[in-house]
Amino acid sequence: MKQWPTATKNYIDELRNEMKRVTWPNPKQVRSTTAVVILTVFAFAAYFAVVDWGIHNTITRFYEVMSR
Predict the structure, then answer these.
(1) Which 8-state DSSP code applies to residue 26?
(2) Within a 10 A sphere around the Cβ of 7, how many other Cβ atoms?
(3) Is residue 7 situated within a structural domain?
(4) How many domains does the chain fold into?
(5) Is 59 a domain residue?
(6) Structural domain harbouring 30
(7) Is 11 a member of any domain?
(8) How far apart are CA 25 and CA 37, in angstroms?
(9) pTM for the predicted model, two decimal places
(10) CA 12 to CA 45: how far, in whole Å?
């Protein structure tokens, strides 16, 4: 318990030193990667919508055939 203040100070000092070494992207890189992420999300959403629609139709047809 007595080492808590020292450990906390060491952690904060190490965190500051590590943050100085971080390479931050420029605004152009941020815009381009954001666009890629948004397009990827929409592509996956469309893919899963098509798959969901297909599974739904298959199960619906199966129930219709089995209930005759």
Answers:
(1) P
(2) 9
(3) no
(4) 1
(5) yes
(6) 25-68
(7) no
(8) 15
(9) 0.63
(10) 41
